[in-house]
Here is the input.
Amino acid sequence: MKSSRSKRPARKKDAGATREAILVAAREAFTRLGYDGAGVREIAAAAGANPALVNRYFGSKEALFEEAVPTAFEIAPLLPEARQGFAEALARYVLTKDKAALGGFDATLAMLRSVGNPKATELMREGLEERFVAPLADWIGEPDADVRAALFMALLSGVAVMRDVMGVAPLRGDVERTVRWLTPLLDALVAPSGKTGGST
Amino acid sequence: MKSSRSKRPARKKDAGATREAILVAAREAFTRLGYDGAGVREIAAAAGANPALVNRYFGSKEALFEEAVPTAFEIAPLLPEARQGFAEALARYVLTKDKAALGGFDATLAMLRSVGNPKATELMREGLEERFVAPLADWIGEPDADVRAALFMALLSGVAVMRDVMGVAPLRGDVERTVRWLTPLLDALVAPSGKTGGST
DNA sequence: CCGGCCTGTCAACAGTCGTTTACATGAGAG
DNA sequence: CTCTCATGTAAACGACTGTTGACAGGCCGG
Here is the structure.
């Protein structure tokens, strides 16, 4: 009973901090529930803010989503200098990533759970191509790099959908066994050409 | 002005036909808009029926979805006797399939656009495992068949998401060029072991 | 031909959604 | 201290959602 007042601010009047709290809460909610499933009231409550402030600081739920999710697509930090072991490292990453890290935010999951909404997909397409496919294609630097990068992203997304969203059993089992089969697939897309594909 | 009456039945009273019309309209709507995006009023209107009939014949929107989508997952018909050319045929299929066929119904697209809704994913998981992953694993009949089948489905779903839902550019371009890179990936998962993966 | 029941219609319910407006409050400037 | 404006609150709007109950219509068996 430490609060006799009906409202405990928990945060003094600070527009910047409130805006940031809403943004963080939105990322978590979009990751867990998708664009349609996450409501502004729920997001605001998780941020300890009033629902009306969402519209005041972001204009609309659509604009909030646009700022929260598509800008978070980032493949660049994952591109190492050495190509050796890159495929396996990424395979192990998608199979073990814990959404509890980084405050429950996972851009890939937020994307996948929001693909049902046409406005959300429209907002994500540009970010996906510019921040994921294009940099990856540049990094591959081989013939058909654009197609290979797109297939790379498709494979990662597909695994995420089956494992984290649909909960398909075999992908939730032994990680090492799955890594052993996923790695060569990813590697074939990023490795220097001539080994697989490309020829007739 | 051939109809002076305010309502033209367009179909005489026939419970079975009405039920079937709703089912067909629901499949098309779920494919195009996903579980959340497709409304019962819209489905009923497309079927030329009254919205209340949806609940009368199916019980609820959830039950309608359960009967319309998860039962349509079917890999069995696509499993040929000969393994030769199977991967390439399936690769070409996912890259050229036209949703206009079969009345605009595509079970994979309906699934992907509905993954944002937890009730929908719950209803689809069983059908997906029993009607797609398990039969495919049996057909592969190799060590780690379950993981390989799951990755196979993940790859196909990922391509569908990136190409048909997100509209990623490289996957909408030259089909043959994409087939050339997608085929060996699928082939590695269904081909007799020893060629790729499984070792170490 | 006629009554009963299956089929279809209509309207409304209760709830949620994003959004907006009017109002209260508190912190900092003069 | 006091005025003032940014910040936060409260309530309601209009539009939707899935669902249900009461009612009408027509087809078929008697």
